[in-house]
Amino acid sequence: MEKEPIAENIQNEKDPTKMLSLVSHKLKTPLSIINGYSEAILSQSSKEKFSPFTAKALEEINKQGTKLCNLVDKLLFFNKVVSLQAKDLAKKTLNLKNIIKTSANDAIAQDEEIATVSAGSTVAKKGTFIEIDCPSNLEIKADEELMGFLLEELLSNAIKFNNKAEKIIKVQCAHHGDSISISVRDYGAGIRPQDVNKIFENFYQVDDYFTGQIDGWGLGLTMVKKILELHGGSISVISDRGLGSIFTVSLPVE
Ligand SMILES: Nc1ncnc2c1ncn2[C@@H]1O[C@H](COP(=O)(O)OP(=O)(O)OP(=O)(O)O)[C@@H](O)[C@H]1O
Ligand SMILES: [Mg+2]
Question: Which residue, judged by its Cα, is nearest atom 4 of ligand 1?
């Protein structure tokens, strides 16, 4: 059987970053087909035609396919972020409160449980509240896509590693001389002291036993750290198992 060109590329590829990119692209094509077809069947045919089992199976195929697609997209984005250099940043002046609001909406939209519940009538029961305390005129000079990703990542972690029925997340921004701090506080699972430094390593996830559920690669915080390095910023964490976490980002104003 003749090899596809991409398979040859993977075999000859010595650079792990390029290898990851080739593998991710290869996974994307069949996944898009699975998702496309399952979506088309679900939207075109009236669901009454299916047995309850078939309807549930189709929904699950679509849900898991979408999840896999998001995982592959994150892997591709990781690949892009790790190879970026400061000169590649598309820096511009951004209103901090606006970008936090957009990221908060995106992080909430990602949460499957909230999305399902908000379609019904029990939003209060599964409520997630992101309170933003940020002066309206605060500006930063940063790459919009990367900064949006960074904030969304911290917020989606605060939602994801949180088993509370009511999830309260507090974002606080402050201006100190030539730097700006953004802290994201949650009252969720928290992190044990021995894990706090490891969470910024590639593919590191704290044991599932402690956090309740795990979705993702363990790559989000590696990217957050890299994005901050590119912008001349830093991140620190204060956390306690069972009490929650505070992730504080520090960024130069310029
Ligand atoms: N707010 C938080 N509360 C408790 N644990 C957290 C929090 N944020 C991160 N962690 C822990 O740190 C680990 C690494 O986080 P990271 O964002 O890098 O990966 P992930 O969210 O598991 O996967 P990915 O971001 O790739 O989707 C998580 O798996 C989790 O165990
Ligand atoms: Mg994450």
Answer: 190
The torsion of the CA quartet 156, 253, 170, 63, rounded to 10 degrees, works out to -10
Pocket test for ligand 1, best of 111, 221, 222, 247 (most atoms within 8 A of CB): 221
Sheet with strand 128-133: strands edge to edge: 128-133, 167-176, 179-186, 244-252, 234-240
| Kind of pairing between the strands at 179-186 and 244-252 | antiparallel
Q: Retrieve residue 85's tokens.
A: 């250099």
For residue 141, list its beta bridge partners: 93
Predicted TM-score (pTM) of the model is 0.87
160/152 Cα distance (integer angstroms): 12
Residues with CB under 5 A from ligand 2 (ion): 157, 220
Q: Is 151 exposed, middle or buried (0-12, 13-18, 19+ CB in 10 A)?
A: buried
Query: What is the maximum alpha-carbon separation in the chain?
Result: 65
Give me ligand 2 centre to Cα 218, in Å. 6
pLDDT tens string, the chain, 254 residues long: the values are: 444 555 566 666 677 788 888 888 889 999 999 999 999 888 876 666 788 898 889 999 999 998 899 889 999 999 999 999 999 999 999 999 999 999 998 898 877 554 433 333 223 336 888 999 999 999 999 999 999 999 999 999 999 999 888 899 999 999 999 999 999 999 999 999 999 999 999 988 887 655 555 678 899 999 999 999 999 999 999 999 999 999 999 999 87
Shortest-distance atom of ligand 1 to CA 206? 31
Domains of the chain: 5-82 (1.10.287), 90-252 (3.30.565.10)
